[in-house]
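User: We ran a pulldown and think these components assemble together. Before we commit to crystallization trials, I'd like a predicted model of the whole complex to look at. Sequences follow.
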Amino acid sequence: MLNRIEFVISEALVALSRNRLMTLAAVSTVAVALFLFGGMGYAYYRVDKYAQTIPGKFKMLVYMRDGATKRQISDTAKQIRAMDGVSTVHLVPKGMAWEKWKIEHRSGLTEGVDNPLPDALKVVLSDLGKSERVVTSIEQLPVVAPENGVRYMKDEQNFVEGLLTILRGVGIIVGGILFVTAGMLIYNAIRLTVLSRRLEIRIMQLVGASRGTVYIPFLIEGMLQGVIGAIVASGLVVAVYAAFNWLVQTRIDAGYIASAFPYSEVIGMLCTAGATYGILCSILAVRAPLKYR
Amino acid sequence: MQSPHLSFENVEVKYTDLVYGLGEVTLVVQSGEFVFLTGPSGAGKSTLLKLATKEVQPTSGGVLLNGREIGHVKAREVPAIRREMGIVPQDFALLPRKRVYENVAYAMRAVGNSKKEVRRRVPEILQQVHIAHRADAFPHELSGGEQQRVAIGRALVNDPPLLLADEPTGNLDPEQSWEIMDLLKELNRNGTTVVVASHDMMVVTRMGERVVSLNQGQIVADMAATSNLQDVLPMNLPNDDWPEMPLLETVPSEEENA
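Assistant: Here's a predicted model for the assembly, 551 residues in total across the polymer chains.
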């Protein structure tokens, strides 16, 4: 068994070393396709998660001054609820907000740190057209924090929504096209290898090598092309992750702290996808030409 | 007592409705026999061999190897059938970038032999086919006869009881042809059943073995071995002074066929 495995792997490596240019083309296309499909998918997921943490267009957060009493907060809530254009007002206690923040970010930064968050009110608007007036009215209330007391991120929401649309569009359309192209390139690379190794294949078939011995080197070749492409794609995803954090921190929220990047999950997922896709394309490519004859 | 090694029973190969490869051929090759399949191009010699090697499926009829029907077995069973025979292709099919030793070793590794087994068996095989002295040569450094020896050696990696050779002297000069026939005869004497497709009538008649003549997909003559021919014409001495052989009359020339 070990002899066969050793032979099959050595054959796969020989196959990879032939048609280097075609292999390079297949690997790079797989990388870009996986990056766009998988990497953009991951970026979309992260942006979406971020979007969920900022108030929606109909929502705003009103932060209370330090030391505001429950009575004061309750009175403020009533005043806001009475404003024209406001639908509902709910209290977000600072203890609950801090626990949620710690769970979402899971970074060691929160250890031993006192809760820096203030109590807040979550305000839901009934009329977007009156949002500016509502914001102005709330900012004048005495218990509301004087600086950045109202967190209403309509423009930011629009920006994030636009970003999500771009990521979705680019990921699905361009990634999809490239994925098909990558498949065709792997298919062609394997076909070329089959062609360049037809004498070896013929000899193996003449002496009665098992079908696995004849087939598997080509499947390994396809799988390796997919995996190498996936590793390159993983590098691109990490770069996008860093770029995204930079973008958010510089353009939206300087205090934004990115959650830890799940390196092993992303690399594992992309490599599995690349390997599966490579093997599938190889199976399609070798089915007919390697038929025992 | 003889036992059938390879049998074709009313076997027919039809490529299309109009193109026949073989038409209802029945032939039995006994274990340990040496059989020539002769006839002009397109007579069906190679098709018969390909039926045995499972490169061609019979349209009807049966092909039996050691009594087992192999005509319609599933593709996954073909490798095991191939390991029961040695196949010598007409074009040698040697790997140009591998040395003689490596060519045979490659085939052994492909069928799952360990490196240790390869190191033990390959020199034996090369000795058996009298090419051990050229073990380090590349195929392009060998003569046609030497290349054919390597191809025969490679066909022996499974130690097969049956050897099928398609035009083994097709690319060789007379002297090399005799050397190859000598080798095949030697293997036959050691118990290997040998079936050779050849249109080289000079070789066929001089060997004095059983000759099955085909024409247009049918067996037109089946002549038993006549060992006296070997005495008349020693195999290692090509001789242009040919006695007229009755077999020649049974095989129409290509011009007649056309």
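The interface with chain B takes residues 3-4, 7, 199-200, 202-211, 213, 291-293 of chain A (CB under 8 Å). That may be worth checking against your pulldown data before setting up trials.

User: Thanks, that helps.
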